[in-house]
Structure formats: structure tokens, C-alpha cells
Amino acid sequence: MPSTAHHDVTCPFCGLLCDDLTVVSDADQLTVSGGGCARSDAGFDAPAGPAEPLVDGGPASLHDAVARAAGILRAAALPLYGGLGTDVAGMRAVLALADRTGGVLDHMHGESTLHNVLAMQDAGWMITTLTEVRNRADVLVLAGTDATGRIPRFFERLVWNPETLFGQSTAAREIVYLGTGLDTSAGHAPDGRPPTVVPCERARLGEVAAVLRALLAGRPLRRASLGGVALEELAGLAARLQAARYGVLAWSAADLDGAHADLTVQALAELVRELNRTTRWAGLPLGGEDGATTAAQVCTWQSGYPLRVGFGRGYPDYDPWRHATGALLASGTADALLWISAFDREAAPPAAGPPTIVLGRPGMAFARPPAVYIPVGTPGLDHAGQLCRMDSVVTLPLRALRATGLPSVADVLDAIRREL
Ligand code: SF4
Questions:
Q1: Closest C-alpha residue for ligand 1 atom 4
Q2: pTM
Q3: pLDDT of residue 1
Q4: pLDDT digits (tens, 9 = 90+) for 228-276
Q5: 36 touches ligand 1 (CB under 6 Å)
Q6: What is the 189 CA–ligand 1 centroid distance (Å)?
């Protein structure tokens, strides 16, 4: 069969969901030939097999693997549905299965997602969309993140884009990094103009945000420096932020330090609120890897709550601490684990825990062989689907680029549910 070039392909491998890739399919092999990045290249290039399910480490038919998985879930008092790296249809199916079995749902990036959710629930926030950033931002502050480590094409697609809807010259955009140890190379403007780097200690970002807010409000401050940065420098930064016409303050909760990173997020959101007294600013939480935004969105629109939700009481029960994967496995409360990772074959389930069922990309390696491993297709490569972009305002369609015969997560979960 001759190779085929697929144009305007949507990439499912990070929350940006770039929709301009060219991918060549040659039988089962996919190669990105235009518009990608190192992350997408690795994602599309990964082999499509082996596709055979394993039960207790030995080959099994899909029918037998589904039957064994159903048996484990039937016997469990509290099954945990973790990982959740899947598309909209997969999340709908896992919610239906959790409802049927009284299970708990948590995403593999549930901890960092929670930092954002807690901050938003506690005090609200003003955030923007990727389209607004691309078309309107004149100042971009990256707090504690370089963005490109997790979203390689962030600057290419959103910051140094050659055209905007309203004729703004993106080359004049001002980039500010807050934090040490960041890769600031992508923040150089097309003409070579370097970004501003304010090397504050990343663990003290929340305090720095609070001081900037105090400076903007004209409050007297007695200290000479904070987090390794002179107050004079912070005062200069506050003035530059205030002079923006449409500023954007971005952070990645996964890059923030500490168990209470939600307080840092809240301080950043409060800084945005303060800046809006005199000009226009918005926050931009970065993330959405491994279908994290999709999992949160589908869970919210189906159950009324964000993750982490349990169905053991016969109704959706939101408890982000009691229903955390780590807590449920450490206490032994969860007596079965169904782990889903349809995008990343490196994202294996925790090594220790109860009997485990894995629905994952072919070729996953395990520290402890799961009771059941069913290789599944990747949405956007092996089957069609939909994913929610990281700003939660767009759901993008994904196409099938090859015919591997691998089942989707939704197919397998629906089969398990019928077997119960
Ligand atoms: S930046 Fe993200 S969505 Fe875009 S091509 Fe790279 S991995 Fe894919």
C-alpha cells in the first residue's frame, strides 16, 4: 500500500492540540513530516504493536481479558479508575463504569489540576483563551514555568505568530519570566530582543505576586528584597505590568512547588484581579497533558463535579482529598485499580497496589505485571475521537490515520460493563 500524507492533523500529545501537522502513514508506521515538535514526533512514531492482551503476564484473547477485568471489578468493594489518559468517548465510558461499580475517578495529573481547581473554587479567577493570547496579548508573564518544557510549540503558535486578527505586531510583545532555572530561549523576539528575567526563588512566587499586588495598590513596604529580588526591581516590574494594554499571566500548576501550590495560584489570580483595576489582564493556566482537560470537562458535565469524584454512595461524591489515587492506594482502601493511558506508554500505573487492569498504549513496561493488560488505540492515530484543549473552550476532532484494529478505551470499557 502506498504511503499517504495526512494534512491539518490534530496532535493529541499535549494540551495545545496543534491542528496543523502533516503526518505520513505507511502501513502501521506514522511519521510527522510537518508542523510537529519533539514530543509529537515521539508520540506519532511509537509502534502500533504488540496488540495482544495479557492476562497474568500471558497472552490472552480480548474476550478473555475483558472477562477477567470484569471479574476483578465485580469482586471489588472500591475500584479506583486512575490514569484517565483518554478522549471524550473514553471518559464517558469510564464514568458509566464507575457509576455502575461504585468506583472512584482520579486523573494521573490530578494533583496539579487540583491546585488550579482549589484556587478557582476559593476565590474565583479571571482567565483567558489561547485565541485571545494569540491575537491580543502585549505582555506575557510566565510565572515559574518556561511553558515549552511541557508545551513545545507554545511560543511558535501563540506568541511569535506572524499574524493576528487585529493587526497587532507580535514582534513587539514583551516577555517576562518569573523564576530561576527556566529555559528562556524561546522568549527571544524574532529580532533577537531578549526577554526580561526576574530571578526570584520559585518557592516564593506567591509572596512575589503578593508584593507586586501591594506595590500596585500603593501600600508601603519595609523590606529591601524578596525571594532574592530587590524591591526596586519588583517596583519597576509592577509599573511595566500596569502599562500593559492586554497582559497575560501564565503558570503551570505542575511546575509550582509544594503541597499548597493552590495558594501560589491564588496569589497569581489575585495579582491579575488587582491589575484589572486600571488595565486589562488575564490568567492562563497551562496544562492539559494526557487528556487532563478532557477528563475534568467530561466529569464535570456528566456528574456536576470536577475530579476527584466517587460513586460508592450511589451518587456523585466530590472529595479531592479522600479520592486521591495516592491516598486510596496507600491506605489500601481501593481494592482494584483500572488504569488508563492511551497517549503515553511511559505512564504506567503505580508499582504497588491492588489487582490492576491496564488499558494502555502498546509496548508499555511494568514494574509489576498487571493482572490484565489490554493494548488500546490512541485517539487521533488509531481511531477518531475528540479532545478538549487546555483552555477548555474548544473540543477538537481527532482522525484515524491508520487501521491497526486496536480497540478504543470506550470500546473496551463498554465491553467490560456489559460483562458485569
Ligand atoms: S506542542 Fe503539543 S500539541 Fe503541538 S505538536 Fe507539540 S506535542 Fe503536539
A1: 18
A2: 0.95
A3: 60
A4: 899 999 999 999 999 999 999 999 999 997 778 999 999 999 999 999 9
A5: yes
A6: 21
Cα gap 333→345, rounded to integer Å: 27
Pocket test of ligand 1: the residue of 9, 18, 30, 381 to mutate, having most ligand atoms within 8 Å of its CB, is: 18
The 3-class SS string of 131-167 reads HHHHHHCCEEEEECCCCCCCCCCHHHHHHCCCCCCCC
As a whole number, the mean pLDDT across the chain is 96
Distance 109 CA to ligand 1 centre (A): 18
- Ligand 1 pocket check for 152: Cβ under 6 Å: yes
Q: Is 39 in the pocket of ligand 1 (CB under 6 A)?
A: yes
> Over the stretch 88-142, which tens digit does the pLDDT of each residue have?
999 999 999 999 999 999 999 999 999 999 999 999 999 999 999 999 999 999 9
**Which atom in ligand 1 lies closest to the alpha carbon of residue 37?**
6
Bridge partners for 298 per DSSP = none
One-letter amino acid for residue 387 of the chain? L
Cβ–ligand 1 distance for 204 under 6 Å, the answer no
Q: Is the peptide bond before 79 cis (omega within 30 degrees of 0)?
A: no
Instruction: Record the cell numbers describing residue 373, joined without a space.
Output: 493488560
19 Cα to the center of ligand 1, angstroms: 9
Tell me the per-residue pLDDT of 175-193, one tens digit each, with 9 for 90 and over: 999 999 999 999 999 999 9
pLDDT exceeds 70 at position 355: yes
Confidence of residue 205 (pLDDT cuts 50, 70, 90): very high
Q: Which of 293, 396, 414, 406 is nearest to 345 (CA)?
A: 406
Helices (H) and strands (E) in the chain, counts: 12, 21
| Nearest protein Cα to ligand 1, atom 2 | 14
Label residue 146 left, alpha or beta by phi (over 0 means left) and psi (-120 to 50 means alpha).
alpha
Q: Omega before 157 cis (within 30°)? A: no
Our answer on whether the CB atom of 40 is closer than 6 Å to any ligand 1 atom is: yes
C-alpha–C-alpha distance, residues 29 and 11, integer Å: 16
Please report the atom of ligand 1 found closest to the CA of residue 14.
Answer: 2
Q: Residue 18 Cα, ligand 1 centroid: separation in angstroms?
A: 6
Q: Which of 86, 84, 109, 54 is nearest to 338 (CA)?
A: 84
CA distance 91 to 89: 5
